[in-house]
Design brief:
Helix 9 crosses helix 12. Helices cover 38% and strands 20% of the residues. 50% of the residues are buried. The strands form four sheets. Strands 12, 13, 14, 15, 16, 17, 18 and 19 form an eight-stranded antiparallel β-sheet that branches. It has a five-stranded antiparallel β-sheet with strand order 5-6-10-8-9. Strands 1-2-4-3 form a four-stranded mixed β-sheet. It is built from 16 helices and 19 strands. It has four domains: 96 residues, Uridine Diphospho-n-acetylenolpyruvylglucosamine Reductase, domain 2 (2-Layer Sandwich), CATH 3.30.43.10; 119 residues, Uridine Diphospho-n-acetylenolpyruvylglucosamine Reductase, domain 3 (2-Layer Sandwich), CATH 3.30.465.10; 116 residues, Alpha-Beta Plaits (2-Layer Sandwich); 85 residues, 2-Layer Sandwich (Alpha-Beta Plaits). The longest helix is centred in the last third of the chain and has 21 residues. A hairpin with a 5-residue loop joins strand 18 and strand 19. The protein is an alpha+beta fold. It is globular, with a radius of gyration of 23 Å. It binds flavin-adenine dinucleotide, D-malate and zinc ion. The site of zinc ion has 5 residues, from loops.
Length: 477
């Protein structure tokens, strides 16, 4: 930023400093650096300033100041988003509003089954606060040590517990939100039943910072599930994994907590790049499933249920082998194979992420057909396919041909178009859980009907008539 720009911006910066204190308005490029590039490294922008308020009142002051000067605001939590929605564009005119200082657990009520938190509380800390009160906050993501509950709500995050507990929106009972003009909506009553009009909480869930800044939330808690039965299962195909899901549902019912898939390519990357990772099975397989049953201390039949599932699967040629966790350490090791895939693929090199969902019945045929299509677009391309198969959600994340990072970048539009076209043809969605952000804002609109896009734009205009909240994210400008 030049001195002359600084001079022009002084009134806004002064007001921001008055709102949150000098130390929490960052403009030095070294201080700002970590806030302007996303986890994937694909999106790197520039910020007019990074502002770090410590309370809802301070967020309201910051947003009101930005509203008065018509300055765009980019809300940011843990900056683990995978679609570039939490970082500014290249203009240098946007204020990044980081919730990182708002980390207070406001209340835990085990009997009501609720926890009330500031938006900047890290997901793992929400889980820990619930556990401290003898309850479970079930949401679980590979990024849970850094992502914030505000970011989870803003993206309607998924993860590995959706099969049993649902997406983030199903865990949200109420929100506190600073609106684009700086007013505060307090919707933190946390009632299970409240049929008094439009559901404003759900309007903000999944809005990716485009309608307001979430500053607090009331979330649902559940009984703890200290018992687990976990297996890493070799399966011949996606079709076999889907058939195994049916068997697992039949035997385990509501105890089925996790059902994740990974192809051999994904496992190979984890084995290559994650220190300490080892293949728990002797013979290689094209596909693997991580299956976990979870229950209360009184649920003693989980191991038997898992054994019955695996026995039936082997008999029906749906599984060739399985490693069953015999201790908490072995369970952690199996989970690390699944949770390490994103990180390992990032270390490997250029990656093109596709977070797609399809009707489960179409999943296997879709995944099978896609490989040859991509091979025609870019020979040698490596589909690293994994994810939440129990939810119909595959991370169809394509790695570059060996040594061909630039080729992948050049072919990216054609590869993504091929994938999105076939997802749309199969009545699927191009974003199952990561949101649209900057990466997919245009594609999101292109694959929706005009009526859907009109409705979304009408909501945006009604809440944010000046277009100040996260412009360019979710909806193309
Ligand atoms: P950020 O990245 O900071 O922001 C994400 C979006 O939310 C942006 O648009 C931002 O403007 C908006 N936002 C953030 N905070 C607020 C707020 N308080 N008010 C309004 N808007 C806000 N995601 C899944 O769904 N499932 C997974 O399994 C999963 N696994 C992951 C594994 C790894 C290794 C990584 C790096 C990411 C993974 N993610 C996953 C993606 C990411 O962690 C989630 O999208 C998460 O919800 C983002 O939270 P955050 O606090 O980091 O948000
Ligand atoms: C995961 O489930 O591990 C992530 O959502 C996938 C990703 O990083 O693309
Ligand atoms: Zn995921």
């Amino acid at each position: 930023m030049t001195d002359s720009t600084d001079h022009l911006l002084d009134p806004l910066l002064d007001r921001l400093r008055a709102a949150v204190g000098d130390a929490h308005v960052l403009t030095d490029p070294a201080d700002v650096a970590a806030f302007v590039v996303d986890w994937t490294g694909v999106h790197e922008g520039q910020a007019l300033a990074v502002v770090r308020p410590g309370s809802t009142a301070e967020v309201a002051d910051v947003v009101a100041a930005c509203h008065a000067t018509r300055t765009p605001v980019v809300p940011q939590g843990g900056n683990t988003g995978l679609v570039g929605g939490g970082v500014p564009d290249a203009s240098g005119t946007q204020v990044v509003l980081s919730l990182g200082r708002m980390r207070r657990v406001r209340d835990v009520d085990p009997v009501a089954g609720t926890i009330t938190v500031d938006a900047g509380v890290v997901l793992a800390d929400v889980q820990a606060a619930a556990a401290h009160a003898g309850r479970l906050f079930p949401m679980s993501l590979g990024s849970e040590g850094s992502c914030t509950i505000g970011g989870n709500l803003a993206t309607n995050a998924g993860g590995t517990a959706v099969l049993r507990y649902g997406m983030t929106r199903e865990l949200a009972l109420g929100l506190e939100v600073v609106l684009p003009d700086g007013r505060v909506w307090d919707g933190l009553r946390g009632l299970r039943k409240d049929n008094t009009g439009y559901d404003l909480t759900q309007l903000f869930v999944g809005s990716e910072g485009t309608l307001g800044v979430i500053t607090g939330a009331v979330l649902r808690l559940f009984p703890e599930t200290p018992r687990h039965a976990t297996a890493w299962v070799a399966v011949p195909s996606v079709a076999a994994a889907v058939a195994l899901l049916g068997i697992a549902q039949q035997h385990a019912g509501a105890h089925l907590a996790t059902f994740e898939i990974a192809n051999r390519q994904a496992l190979d990357l984890v084995l290559a790049h994650l220190p300490g990772a080892s293949d728990p099975l002797v013979a290689p397989s094209d596909w693997y499933v991580l299956v976990e049953l979870a229950g209360a201390a009184t649920d003693r039949g989980l191991d038997d249920a898992l054994e019955a599932i695996l026995g039936e699967a082997v008999e029906a040629d749906l599984a060739s082998d399985a490693a069953v966790a015999g201790s908490p350490a072995q369970r952690d090791a199996l989970w690390a194979l699944r949770e390490g895939i994103s990180e390992a693929q990032k270390v490997e090199g250029a990656t093109l992420k596709h977070d797609v969902t399809l009707p489960i019945a179409s999943l296997a045929a879709w995944a099978e057909a896609m490989g040859p299509v991509l091979e025609c677009v870019l020979p040698g391309v490596r589909p690293v396919t994994y994810g939440h198969v129990g939810d119909g959600n595959l991370h169809y994340n394509v790695s570059a041909p060996v040594g061909g990072d630039d080729d992948l970048r050049a072919a990216a539009p054609a590869l993504s178009a091929a994938i999105y076209d076939s997802v749309a043809a199969a009545d699927g969605s191009i974003s199952a859980e990561h949101g649209l952000g900057r990466t997919k804002a245009a594609a999101g609109a292109a694959y929706k009907s005009d009526v859907e896009v009109d409705l979304m734009r009408a909501l945006k205009r009604a809440l944010d008539p000046h277009g100040l909240m996260n412009p360019g994210v979710l909806l193309p400008e």
